């Protein structure tokens, strides 16, 4: 019997270790579709730039196109602006992911790394979801260090997404990334085993 390709979403709140899990999956030889990377590419497509400038003004531009830091300062902590940005960019990302999924439809497992899988209603692109989780204290500490942010700015970013606890409730599988990477990878190995067996 021919095995059907399973498209598996990998998600998690900011600074919870989603990228560490995705990088590990790549090391294991799996296809990982990076929604964030697609988003960056689409952000500078001509029609998107025009729409964004119409809404946010030319202040979001620099010599390379849309400056993500400038745009970020206008959308994080401002739900209306964030919604406007998402309405423009999310359909483009979704279409691109669908195209790539078709391309790899003969694989056993394809992983889709999407930070806002639930918030942006990307769930229809996947068959199963893995939520990478860590406790709030660890998340805040990691984000402040990684992005060189003040506590206030880090909290603004964390609060612009569903909380780790909320996401964990929505996932088919949970990876707790509050401890060592070795422990995280072991959990990922177990999930892959279950997915390949079809026990999920």
From TrEMBL:
GO terms for cellular component: cytoplasm. It is an enzyme of class 2 (transferase). Pfam families: CoaE. PROSITE patterns: DPCK. GO terms for molecular function: ATP binding; dephospho-CoA kinase activity. The keyword Translocase does not apply. The keyword Lyase does not apply. Catalyzes the phosphorylation of the 3'-hydroxyl group of dephosphocoenzyme A to form coenzyme A. This is Dephospho-CoA kinase. It comes from Gemella bergeri ATCC 700627.
